[in-house]
Amino acid sequence: MAPDTRAQFRWGIAVFVIALAVVAVIAFVPDPLFRYRTVSTTLDNVAGIDAGTPVSFRGIVVGDVRAVDLDPDSRNFRVRMNVRRDWRPSACTFVSAAAANPFTPPSIELVSVEPAVAADAGQCRAAMAAQDCAALPALDAGPMAIAGCRRAPDLVASATMAVREAADVARSANQMAQRLQAMLGSGGSDGGAGGRGGASMAQIAENATRTLAALQSLSDHLDRSFSPGKGDLAVSLGNVRTISGKIARVDVAQIDGILYNANGVVAENRANLATLVDQAAKSSTHANQMLEGASASLVEATANLKRMTANLDALSERLSADPTFAVRGQHYADPPGLTPKGAHGQ
Amino acid sequence: MIARMAAIAPLLLITAGCGVMGKADAPVTLRLAPVFGAATAHDRRSVSVAPADAAPTAARTRYAYVDPARPGEVNQARTLFWEEPPPRALGRALVSALRARFASASGAEVAIPADLRVLPMLNRFEEVSGNPGRAVVAFEATVIEQGKVAHAGSWCASAPFAGNSPSARAQAFEAALASATGAFVQDLAAGTAPSAAGPC
Does the distance separating the beta carbons of A279 and B108 come in below 8 Å? Predict the structure, then answer.
C-alpha cells in the first residue's frame, strides 16, 4: 500500500507548528512550567536594578527581577520579582537592595525573620531596624507584597558622608581647642579659681574626651579603609564600564570639595594645638594633665585624618584621571639587585 | 547561559594566562627592631613623643627606593613591605632611644605630662640603590619645653647594605634608624645643635 503523502504532509505541518509553539512558549513565556510566583516590593532607588537582576535568600539565588515600574505619586519604584514557589515569606519578611560600591552590581536580598524572633509587628520593626532597614511605604498590599528597605548608600557615598562627618568632628575638636584657649587665657582654668571655673573645665574636658575619641576612631577607620591598594576597592573586570561612568560623574567633585574643607580644618587644628600646648605649660597641674592628654590625642587624630584625606585625595585623583586604575593597580618594580626571599647574596 | 559563559571566558583566559606567564608576587614583610645600649649618663627629665608625621611616600608601608641617577624620583617596590608604617617605627625608635638616656620616655599612647615634648616629622625612609645600596633615614624634630621650642633640627643617617637580601636591607635600615635617633637623643641631652645633619 502506497503511503498517503497528503496525510504525511499534514502530520509534518502539525509537528512543525507544535514544535514552533513549544519553542515560542519556552522563549517568550517567563515561567512556562509555573515554578515561580510573582512577589512585589517597593524601593526608593533602583540604580543597577532591572529585569534579570538576581534575587537571593540566605546565600542562594531564588529568583530574579521581572519588572521595575515608577509610581508617579510616591516617586518610588514597584519592583516585581519571580521567586521560586518553594520559598515562602515569613510574617516578617523584607527586601534589601544594596551595592557595596558603585563598581559592583547591586543585589536584592530577601530577608525573613523567623516568628520566634519577631512574633508581632513591633518586634518585626525592631528586627528590621536592627538590620539597618528603614521600611518604605508599600505600594502594594497583600500576602505577596513584601516591605522594601530604603536603599543604603554605596561605599563611595558612605565615604563622602564619613569624610563630611570626620570634618564636622574635626571642626568640633577645633572649637573645643579654641574654648580651652579662651578659658586658659582668661585665667579660669585653674580648677581652684572658683566652683564655676572648675565645673566648666570638667565639662569641657569630658566633651573633649568624647569628641577626640570619636574623631580618633573615625579617622583611624577611614585611614585603614582608604589607603590605596587596600580596603574595598577590589573590583571585577566586568564592571570597568560602570566605574568609568559613575565615579567621574558623581563622586570625585563632591569628595574633593569635602577634602578641601577637611584639610583646612586639619591645618587650623594644628595651628591651635601649638597655642594650646604653649598655654598648657603655663597652667596648673590639673589643667596641664588634661591638656597634655587632649593635645596628644588631637595630634594623633589629626595625623590620622590628614593621612586619610591624603590617601583619599590621591585615590580620587587617580580614579578621575584613569578609572581603570582601580582594576589595573599600579606598576611597581623591586629595587635593583634585590635577591629572592631567604637568599643572602652580596 | 551563553552570556554568562561569555563573561566568564575572559576571566578564565586571564587566569590561565597568568598561570602560564609566571608565578604570583611573593610579598616580603620587613621588620625593624633597632637596639639601643644603656647610656652612661642619665638625664632626670621626662620626655613624651608625639605621633610622627611623614612625607607621603615615607608614610607608606610599601618599601621606597631612589635611583641615584634620578634622585628626584621616588620608586616603590613591588614585593617589599614594612611591617608597620615607617613613621610609627620612627616613633617607637625615638621612645626606645630616649628611654636609654632620660628618666622616662613615653609615646602618644601614654598621655602623661612630661618635661619635654618631641614632635617628629619623617622626611626620608628610603633605599638609595647602588652597589652597595644604602638605607637613608632622615627626620626633623621639634622639642617643646615649658611651652617654648627648646630644640629643633634635622637628623639624618645612612647605613650600607651588607647584602642584597631583604634581611640585609632591613638590618641596614635598623642601623640607620638607630644612628639617627641616637644622634637626636645625644644632641637633646647635651643641648647642642644637630650633629648628624647634612647630606647622607
Answer: no
Residue B7 lies in a domain: no
State the residue range of the domain holding A71. 36-148
Contact state of A306 with B53 under an 8 Å Cβ cutoff: yes
Cis peptide preceding B132, ω within 30 of 0: yes
Q: Is residue A160 part of a domain?
A: yes
In a domain, A195, yes or no: yes
Look up the domain containing B94 and give its range.
25-190
The DSSP secondary-structure symbol of A314 reads H
Residues forming a β-bridge with B152: B142
The ipTM of this complex is 0.74
Which of B79, B90, B118, B171 is best to mutate for the A interface (most A CBs within 10 A)?
B79
Q: Is the CB of B164 less than 8 angstroms away from the CB of A281? A: no
Does the global pTM surpass 0.90?
Answer: no
Tens digit of each residue's pLDDT (9 = 90 or more) over A67-102: 999 999 999 999 999 999 999 888 899 998 877 555
Euclidean distance between CA atoms A172 and A298, whole angstroms: 11
Verify that A289 and A229 share a domain, yes or no: yes
Same domain? For A176 and A324 the reply is yes
Residues B86, B59: Cα–Cα separation, whole Å: 6
Asked if residue A292 and residue A237 are part of one domain, the reply reads: yes
Query: What cell does B9 get?
Result: 571566558
Q: pLDDT for B32-78, tens place per residue? A: 988 877 766 688 899 988 888 888 788 888 899 999 999 899 999 98
Length of chain B: 200
